[in-house]
């Protein structure tokens, strides 16, 4: 069953082609359609816009053009210029406007074209939207979603200002929630929850995953925030990862299985709130933990995940927690340097083997 | 002007005095160490806030700043609950979580008081967009200072409101200083309302010591916004009589300059108008002062006696 | 105009053709899959970059954008090293680390090419401040697009340069689109140069298809900046003939509109001037085209044969 | 010898009064002056401005007014309006201007009045200044310092938008360096290094520490980046901390000593680059690690420090790594809620005791 595969045409040659059956999330018999992650997000947006007239989209070039990655394509024709609203290049004010609209009862879904540009909007994101509820003693609520493509690799990334993974900037800020889906199924289900949530939600979409295909149920569903998803059960090593790295973990697990190493893959799914219990339970079972993130190593998400393992499962650890993360460098343009920026399947395999031999 | 009712004019006067007395009281309790944090007095600017806010309906929403005690009172907020807020008490509008810089009274029409300079403007733009999409005819009114006009927010917000013809009245209170910085050292033109032309919207400059002029100018701008005419940039020329915050040393200006500005005192000036045009006698106005002073004593008592937030609620109101 | 030497005019022409051919080549190698990333063609805007940059000295510094192949060439950069850069080769100006959006040639006078829209403006302001403090009479010239004028950066940078009378010429290339957004849907006024008044600085709007007019207007602004007269906002009215990036679908505009704009082709137009005023014959101009095409073939060959950065250098140039 | 004490007048009543001899950094006999941390920073700025005409200051109200915390007071009169340059309220452009001036050979020291407002400047900090060197293949260098007061507590903090500790935002970005001194001696020495460094340096100054007094050598000196400072030697527990938290660690250590628990206090000093070796060596010696930061718990600095301990000293750990960190909440105004936001001496004592009893 080819429920998950990737569109090799739209990506550069070097992206590893992930086997179609690597992640199976829909049990046989459940009515489902195959679609890309971009389509799954679009479907979530469209369904929520149908369901709730307060939901609307705003961002640069999200109208006819459909956004830099085509996610909102067709929605302009369907919902019109009012509800699929092109904005000027004013990132901080896009977010501020989303906040203001949310304060008067709308449910905006804003887009920043690349997560990198959110540097211009950190004030409205982290100082205003995230804090208004507490600062007003609960008078305010700010139900918006901020969609941002992030990540790099495989010709989709274009050097230092268009390739970052910045989940830590947001996950460190109380008042925000941060989702980072790895599959079309997760993306749609998490987007529905995000839109229905009464808090500002940062929704990070890995560029390489947009064209990944997978099954999405025909019926309405949503996925909980603050719950990790165990993408694969195993008994020897727990790999904690999110977004695109989940795929490397899954592919590595397949190889490792042939070597007799049984890998459990925990997809963090919502970086914040983080499901510490599921992570703890998994490592208490396996006794070994590998944390994997695309974001830069230093002060990246891996440290937090490791600390949680430490707090939850120290006595069960048979080996030190290992981490794989992005090289601590701005992303260079040249292939010869961009290769090696981020952990890949081989790195995961090697690290898991190391853990077993500790 | 003559068409304003006596009641309205007296209510303006009352709110101006209430602001003045609230600020004097706040500075006093701060100096006496009864409250922590900081207080940014609005003294000298009362006509601006009252003139603008009394031109609004209660479903028109303001967005405030670090210096928004006055805006809240002008919009009708209860000084006792405000006082409780600056005392950090659960009975405060923000349940003590906000303090002086963030006093926000949703019930009288506020979107929040944001202490990052300029950050309320985009939020007001969004509220106005929301009004339009909901078919409401409310207006959003963000306040900022002369200093706030140098922020990127100012430009982005005016441009966005202009292209979408949103019901926003951007109020710039030019009190001549941003902390220690004289406005002409930070703003490249003398008349800030001239910037409106760069957005294709009306720019209006008004004597911010004169509550009736502010009220008239604001009323016009609000009506334009309400009826689909788009945003206005309204600059009220006033002066910050006190230091940037209570106790601030003011090394950057002469006392002579401040004293010269004191003569424009908007309350004294309005009192003269009201007595001259027969709205009230000096005694009646004096009675208002007495009444408000009593209100403030009661507010302080209320605030002092009110309980602090219970530490067990520390995790409340972080997420909805 | 008549005072310009033939050599100067021919060099202008040469650089315009070099930009055109570089862009056609870049689009071609992109389409053929020889390079990764993206290419933002400057076709149709050659007169703007060349007119501005040829009015500069080599110690005047430009700040570029995502669409700065043209600015680099106009300022005198070597197309072979530029081509190597977009191929991600060590021989590129940025040693392959930058790619198309960040081509920066310090040696011919650039501060960098910044792909976050508007971010070059504050940097140019700082460079100009540095010049003043160092007693130099250089000028800083940041480029941005119509889209860039909606950024907070635009406003903050113009205001800061204006209050300090810094030697900056802000060049807004109004090519009518920001990705898919027509400028009148994002900019609240028709004539962007009118925004200059809000900063108390001169605003100049010029036909950006006419290199001589751009050169003259830029020259005036540069002289003003150099001699202490402060910044200018210079708006060049041009058009983006190609998609936002090579291969971009252009769903937001009609082919008819693009075709209509093609008639203003700045190169053809300048060729007509040069042949009419006797600067060159059609044959001489054709020879320039040939020469530049050969240059591009050589540039591609150079770029293709040049080595990639050695992976062992992956940690170089992160910190100084 | 009262070489370190605090100015009780300028702070609220609730700041714990740290004993004057808690941190001794200058050996007896070395000529030294006692001064506050604010004075030490001012002295570093003044000396570097004297030494190097390329050094200048820019920021809001740093002139006659001397900045929100008086750090630059007197410098305007001494160096004039050109070199102590008041700016408009334009945070992103202040940083961009510093970058531009640095690119043409100046060495600006910029100030943002509160770290919170850097949300407006994250683009120029993290996308431009931090990346220009790599993006230009080494053509550019950006030698600036960005001074930002941060932290909260004791009446100096004023609710959610003026109290944060945001070192992680910067330390996660390659291309930046991040210093966070805990004493006047460290502040002066690190500031000298920061100004002489050819890279963008984020210099975070804890508000409560400005009035702390300590000895500073009369002679010129500078302190290295990327080296932790062991503020106290011990054998049972390593406490890894920075900034104000170092004081809580030191005070706790004094109490714990009386209980027979010997605490080693490692002051991180430069959050980035982080001196992983010193941290590792200390924990390999003590076998117990407590990481303490004021910044919010989730995805804060403690995770990274714990991960480093894990990587460096797993086999030596006698107990799980413990952490203390800021409550995951925007900072509330009310005292009753602000108390308890951040770890204090009692918390450190309790955590260290726990570790010993593990
Ligand atoms: C973005 C930002 N920068 C700096 C500050 C510190 N600050 C608080 S008030 C203020 C001056 C504001 O001046 P203005 O807008 O004229 O308002 P006023 O205080 O005069 O009412 C400054 C710089 C801030 N709160 N926000
Ligand atoms: C701050 C920011 N927002 C969005 C983008 C994505 N983007 C790249 S180019 C562009 C349009 C820029 O328009 P304009 O300034 O007119 O320049 P042009 O592309 O027309 O040359 C956009 C939105 C970006 N690079 N930076
Ligand atoms: Mg002011
Ligand atoms: Mg454009």
Quick summary:
Chain A is of the alpha/beta class. Chain A has helices at residues 37-51, 75-83, 91-103, 122-135, 167-171, 184-196, 244-258, 276-286, 301-313, 335-338, 345-357, and strands spanning 5-6, 32-36, 55-59, 84-86, 107-111, 145-150, 177-179, 201-206, 212-217, 229-232, 237-241, 263-267, 270-272, 289-296, 322-326.
Structure description:
The complex is a heterotetramer, with 2 copies of chain A (358 residues) and 2 copies of chain B (320 residues). Chain A has 358 residues and is of the alpha/beta class. Chain A folds into 2 domains: 3-217, Thiamin diphosphate (ThDP)-binding fold, Pyr/PP domains (Rossmann fold, 3-Layer(aba) Sandwich), CATH 3.40.50; 229-355, 3-Layer(aba) Sandwich (Rossmann fold). Helix content of chain A is 35%, strand content 20%. Chain A has 11 helices and 15 strands. In chain A, the strands form 3 sheets. Chain A has a 7-stranded mixed sheet with strand order 4-3-5-6-8-7-13, sandwiched between helices. A 5-stranded mixed sheet of chain A has the order 10-12-11-14-15, sandwiched between helices. The two termini of chain A are 37 Å apart. Chain B is an alpha/beta fold. Chain B has 10 helices and 8 strands. Chain B has helices at residues 6-31, 46-53, 69-74, 79-86, 120-133, 152-163, 211-226, 255-262, 266-276, 282-305; strands at 61-64, 110-113, 140-145, 169-174, 177-178, 181-182, 203-207, 232-237. A 6-stranded parallel sheet of chain B has the order 2-1-3-4-8-7, with helices on both faces. The mean pLDDT of chain B is 97. Chains in contact: A-B, A-C, A-D, B-C, B-D, C-D. At the A-D interface, α4, α5 and α9 of A face α4, α6 and α10 of D. The complex binds thiamine diphosphate (TPP) (2 copies) and magnesium ion (2 copies). One thiamine diphosphate sits between chains C (66-67, 115-117, 144-148, 175, 177-179, 240, 244) and A (60, 89, 91, 113, 117, 120).
């Amino acid at each position: 069953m080819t429920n998950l595969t990737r569109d090799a045409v739209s990506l550069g040659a070097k992206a590893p082609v992930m086997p179609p059956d690597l992640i199976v999330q829909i049990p046989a018999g459940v009515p489902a359609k195959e679609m890309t992650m971009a389509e799954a997000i679009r479907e979530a947006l469209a369904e929520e816009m149908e369901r709730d007239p307060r939901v609307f989209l705003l961002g640069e070039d999200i109208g006819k053009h459909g956004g830099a990655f085509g996610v909102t394509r067709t929605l302009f024709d369907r919902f019109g210029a009012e509800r699929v609203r092109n904005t000027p290049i004013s990132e901080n004010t896009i977010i501020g406007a989303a906040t203001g609209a949310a304060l008067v009862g709308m449910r905006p879904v804003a887009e920043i074209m690349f997560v990198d540009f959110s540097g211009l909007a950190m004030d409205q994101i982290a100082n205003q939207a995230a804090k208004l509820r507490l600062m007003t003693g609960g008078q305010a609520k700010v139900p918006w979603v901020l969609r941002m493509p992030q990540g790099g690799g495989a010709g989709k990334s274009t050097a230092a200002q268009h390739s970052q993974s910045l989940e830590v900037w947001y996950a460190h800020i109380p008042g925000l929630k941060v989702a980072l889906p790895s599959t079309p199924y997760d993306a749609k289900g998490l987007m529905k929850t995000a839109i229905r949530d009464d808090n500002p939600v940062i929704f990070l979409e890995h560029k390489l995953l947009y064209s990944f295909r997978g099954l999405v149920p025909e019926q309405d569903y949503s996925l909980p925030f603050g719950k990790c998803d165990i993408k694969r059960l195993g008994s020897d090593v727990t790999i904690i990862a999110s977004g695109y790295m989940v795929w490397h973990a899954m592919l590595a697990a397949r190889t490792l299985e042939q070597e007799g190493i049984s890998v459990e893959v925990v997809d963090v799914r919502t970086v914040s709130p983080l499901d510490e219990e599921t992570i703890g339970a998994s490592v208490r079972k396996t006794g070994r933990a590998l944390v994997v993130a695309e974001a830069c190593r230093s002060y990246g998400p891996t440290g937090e995940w490791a600390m949680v393992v430490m707090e939850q499962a120290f006595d069960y650890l048979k080996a030190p927690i290992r981490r794989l993360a992005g090289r601590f460098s701005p992303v260079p343009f040249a292939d010869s340097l961009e290769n090696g920026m981020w952990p890949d399947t081989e790195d995961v395999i090697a690290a898991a083997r190391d853990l077993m031999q500790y | 002007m003559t068409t304003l009712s006596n009641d309205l004019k007296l209510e303006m006067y009352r709110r101006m005095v209430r602001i003045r007395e609230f600020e004097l009281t706040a500075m006093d309790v701060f100096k006496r160490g009864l409250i922590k944090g900081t207080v940014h007095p609005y003294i000298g600017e009362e006509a601006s806030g009252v003139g603008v806010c009394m031109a609004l309906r209660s479903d028109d929403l303001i967005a405030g700043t670090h210096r928004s005690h006055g805006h809240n009172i002008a919009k009708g907020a209860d000084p006792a609950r405000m006082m409780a807020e600056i005392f950090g008490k659960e009975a405060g509008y923000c349940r003590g979580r906000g303090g002086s810089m963030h006093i926000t009274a949703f019930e009288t029409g506020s979107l929040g008081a944001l202490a990052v300079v300029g950050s309320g403007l985009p939020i007001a733009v969004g509220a106005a967009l929301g009004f339009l999409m909901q078919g409401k005819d409310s207006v959003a009114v963000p306040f900022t200072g002369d200093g706030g006009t140098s922020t990127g927010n100012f430009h982005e917000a005016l441009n966005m409101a202009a292209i979408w013809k949103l019901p926003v009245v951007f109020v710039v209170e030019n009190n001549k200083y941003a902390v220690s910085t004289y406005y002409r050292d930070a703003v490249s033109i003398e008349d800030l309302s001239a910037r409106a032309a760069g957005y294709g919207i009306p720019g209006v400059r008004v004597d911010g010591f004169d509550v009736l002029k502010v009220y008239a100018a604001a009323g016009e701008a609000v009506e334009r916004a309400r009826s689909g005419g788009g945003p206005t940039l309204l600059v009220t020329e006033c002066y910050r009589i006190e230091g940037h915050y209570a106790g601030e040393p003011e090394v950057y200006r002469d006392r002579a300059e401040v004293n010269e500005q004191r003569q424009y005192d908007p309350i004294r000036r309005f009192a003269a108008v009201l007595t001259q045009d027969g709205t009230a006698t000096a005694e009646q106005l004096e009675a208002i002062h007495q009444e408000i002073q009593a209100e403030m004593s009661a507010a302080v008592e209320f605030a002092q006696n009110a309980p602090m937030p219970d530490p067990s609620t520390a995790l409340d109101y972080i997420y909805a």
